[in-house]
Fold:
Amino acid sequence: MPAPSDVPVFVLCGGFGTRLAGSGGDRPKPMLEIGDRPLLVHIMGWYARFGFRRFVLCTGYRADALASYFMMLPAILSDFTLDLRDRSVSYHQSDYVPDWEITVAHTGLHTMTGARVARAAARYLGDAEHFAVTYGDGLTDADLAEEFRYHLEHGALGTVLAVNPPSQFGRLQLQEDRVAAFAEKPVTGNGWVNGGFFLFRRGFLDYLSCEEDCVLEGEPLTRLAADGGLRVYRHQGFWSCLDTPRDHERIRGLWENGAAPWKA
Structure:
């Protein structure tokens, strides 16, 4: 049985974040600060709590900001010695440096979400049978180890975390534990919605395309649901996306007040 440490987590980090204009300057949304670290590190930290340690960051807009941050992270988190004569750097033992493998994958400036996953997976999935996908702007306190266990047990190609936020998010029409229909951001509707935090078997790659206009939440997930291949893992606890400046302030306030449910 595969362990979470064997499962690469593809994090969608390439969007322009236009609805956050003025909140973070020209930084990509996943790099907005929550306390002393970017939102993206909070997301990765929650995965790491359950044993996931391989991360593939699917970048686009301001990929340089993500690359620079993670290249510098060992120096930020630990003592180091720099020898100016040969420019060699020695990092010293630090309990603060996480045991993560991070790949920064350049997936195109205008590439849609499905194509970002397809392009990055073609290069970095390797021989893994299972992989995770999440957005670089969503936080939760869901038990991701339990979701992974459920994913392994049911045998379908995909699993999606379902949550109960307001109606502007993508609706899931459910039949017991199967997603009967996937609708991204319908005008009306009530019930469970797409909370991200997906798990897939590699067979799901057949539903994706490397073409720039392939949207994960469009034809790929719609067709997977119609084929009976998408199961749901319900979560009634904390979930939030960071979509607007108001979201940023609310999430930052939770962290600063010691009330962040996702604190790893």
The CA atoms of residues 130 and 201 lie 4 Å apart. The chain has one domain: 4-256. The two ends are 25 Å apart (CA to CA).
